[in-house]
Specification:
With about 625 residues, this protein is mainly beta. It has one domain: Maltoporin, Chain A, CATH 2.40.170. It is built from five helices and 34 strands. The strands form five sheets. It has a 22-stranded antiparallel beta barrel. A hairpin with a 3-residue loop joins strand 16 and strand 17.
């Protein structure tokens, strides 16, 4: 099966590459007055923003070059390098994966594709499974720490992650293999005509390494992933553009029911997201209209018992922004989406749901600059079919001290509307959905500072404190909002230092996060301390000549978890994960070698689920 899988990919590569046309490059010196070619930019579609509010939106951008330097296989490889994110994966690649963003719950992170929410409504609590998403066709990743409801809407209490799917305008073939003959592959191909671009990406992964759960009857759990991304752009004049982006993904992964009951369990997770739209942009103004559709189709085979989960979202967004006289900017927009779904769990624990809901949002922002001061105000109202009107806001003030220091403060809110299961679900234990649930809400206060020591060296510091109210809890076979007037509390510090020098880059980070439940206990799976570094450098040796070195290190501090068999709260030891990679370019080819978990740490995250030991991978990329 592995050989057939590999031959199919190579055959597709040969067909596409033999008919290749050199792709036109992105116009780096983009001038709106240029009438000879359109202005091609990768620009984050940030809802409810405008020119003089960008400065108040905290975000971290992970470019395609950063992804490639990590030799990342899946989203987990990238997210583990982000200091404010704690990752727990139930075994090797392809298994259920949750993240805890700034100490918030695992369903408090909003995930988007090109600014469109994709959280799966067929899950019981709306959390996103990061274990089924792989990196091959993703062009850029944007991380938004902190409550972001006024920008993006529901679920962004801990933060938001935006996956940018745009065209990669350089034809490319990438292949990796490891010592166990597992592999991943990417094919990227462009077709160009005047003012028109069609980009096609295809990625695939095969992985068969270890058992997801430690136990007496361990087997290796196989993963197969197929993903594709189709991008179409057509320019009508210099400013007007019509576009389509379609993402398809299927992940088939074996999993273990328990430490002793491990064979005969397989999940088949399919997902489609497609977006159609039109954009009109010039130097000061941006406006866009987008229609989107997302579908999840998940099937789990538990020794012949089939569970099915489906969810659908159909929506549309309109965004407008304009700036005036280099002094202030405004933006506003509309966002409507309709959710519907159902699922049937037919095992010993039987559950089902079927229902629908919709949400209509209006939003606006204004930003201004007076001397050294920058002011931003964001407002958004979400009118949800079940929970009614919910207002969110963000207020930010920042100023420049001297030429190299910026300080700022902000106050922002978040919300999470209940999922379809929480509203309409049923199970064999007597649970019936609660249509009277209120949304969870948060309030965050933050102080931040950026210090530019020189053009190659800068330090960023953030101090934040947040409280989450109306927590949705499962009590006596029913989801309810707590009524004790006690909030979940998180507070912490994020410090990052970046040093650029000729041929090298060093990023050092430290995060302290304290996350407490309603009775002041530390919450599970959230280390209080984490720190590390990302280092890249161009090297030169007599044997290899010029090559690139990439080193990543992250320390996960001690934290609490639930024992997988006794269900008692236990303390988990700290871990130190080191990854190192080498790459070398030879004309249009790049060869690389990577060692993951260099120190061969043996650890469980979460308890009862094994993580891979030291792992060797090598591969090559051909670009034209």
């Amino acid at each position: 099966m592995k050989i057939i899988h590999l031959l199919m990919v190579i055959f597709l590569f040969e067909i596409f590459y033999d008919n290749s046309v050199l792709s036109k490059q992105i116009n780096q010196n983009c001038e709106w007055a240029n009438s000879n070619s359109p202005c091609i930019r990768i620009k984050a579609p940030i809802s409810n923003s405008s020119e003089f509010t960008y400065d108040s939106i905290k975000k971290k951008i992970i470019l395609k070059n950063d992804i490639e330097s990590l030799n990342a296989k899946d989203l987990v490889d990238v997210l583990e390098t982000i200091p404010e994110i704690s990752v727990t994966r139930s075994g090797p690649a392809g298994q259920q994966t949750s993240i805890f963003f700034r100490g918030a719950n695992s369903n408090h992170t909003l995930v988007m594709i090109n600014g469109v929410p994709i959280n799966d409504q067929s899950t019981t609590q709306g959390l996103h499974d990061f274990g089924v998403d792989f990196i091959q066709v993703i062009q850029q990743i944007e991380i938004y720490p902190g409550s972001s409801a006024s920008q993006f809407g529901s679920n962004a209490i801990g933060g938001a992650i935006n996956l940018i799917m745009t065209g990669d305008y350089k034809d490319k073939f990438n292949f990796n293999v490891d010592k166990d003959k597992n592999f991943d592959v990417l094919l990227n191909k462009n077709f160009n005509r005047k003012n028109e671009v069609l980009n096609f990406k295809f990625g695939s992964i095969y992985n068969d390494t270890i058992s997801a759960r430690a136990g007496t009857n361990e087997d290796s759990d196989t993963l197969k992933n197929f993903s594709s991304n189709i991008n179409y752009q057509k320019w009508i004049g210099n400013n007007l553009q019509i576009f389509n982006n379609t993402y398809l993904r299927q992940t088939i992964a074996e999993y273990d029911n328990s430490s002793s009951n491990q064979t005969g369990y397989e999940g088949d997770n399919k997902m489609l997201n497609t977006q159609f739209g039109i954009k009109d942009s010039n130097k000061n103004k941006d406006r866009s209209l987008k229609v989107y559709y997302t579908r999840y189709d998940r099937e789990y085979d538990e020794r012949g018992v089939i569970d099915n989960y489906y969810s659908n979202v159909l929506g549309t967004k309109y965004d407008y922004s304009n700036s005036y006289k280099n002094k202030f900017s405004i933006g506003y927009g509309l966002d409507y989406k309709y959710d519907w779904g159902e699922f049937n769990n037919r095992g010993s624990y039987s559950a089902s749901t079927k229902g629908n809901s919709d949400n209509f949002a209006t939003y606006a922002n204004v930003g201004s600059k007076f001397g050294e001061y920058n002011y931003s105000i964001f407002l958004r109202n979400d009118k949800h079919k079940q929970t009614g009107n919910n207002m969110s806001y963000k207020v930010d003030l920042n100023r420049n001290l001297f030429e190299n220091i910026k300080i700022g403060i902000n106050r922002n809110t978040g919300l999470r509307n209940p999922t379809l299961y929480e509203l309409f679900g049923t199970d064999s234990y007597g649970y019936s959905g609660n249509r009277n649930l209120k949304p969870e809400k948060s309030v965050t206060n933050e102080f931040y500072s950026n210090i530019d020591f020189n053009k190659n060296s800068f330090l960023s510091v953030s101090l934040f404190k947040s409280a989450i109210s109306n927590n949705i809890e499962y009590v006596s076979n029913k989801y309810i909002n707590d009524n004790d007037d006690v909030d979940l509390n998180q507070y912490g510090t994020d410090i990052a230092y970046n040093l650029n020098s000729k041929g090298s880059n060093l990023k050092v980070f430290f995060t302290q996060i304290n996350s407490q439940d309603e009775i002041k206990r530390k919450q599970l799976r959230r280390p209080e301390y984490s720190y590390g570094l990302n280092f890249t450098k161009k090297m030169n040796s007599k044997i290899l000549g010029l090559y690139d070195l990439n080193l990543n290190y992250k320390h996960y501090g001690k934290h609490l978890d639930t024992h997988s068999s006794t269900f008692n709260r236990i303390e988990m030891d700290s871990t130190d994960i080191v990854n190192i990679g080498l790459s070398k370019k030879v004309k249009h080819r790049k060869f690389y070698f990577k060692i993951s978990n260099l120190l061969k740490e043996t650890y469980l995250r979460p308890h009862g689920y094994k993580q891979p030991g030291r792992h060797l991978k090598f591969g090559f990329t051909i670009s034209r």
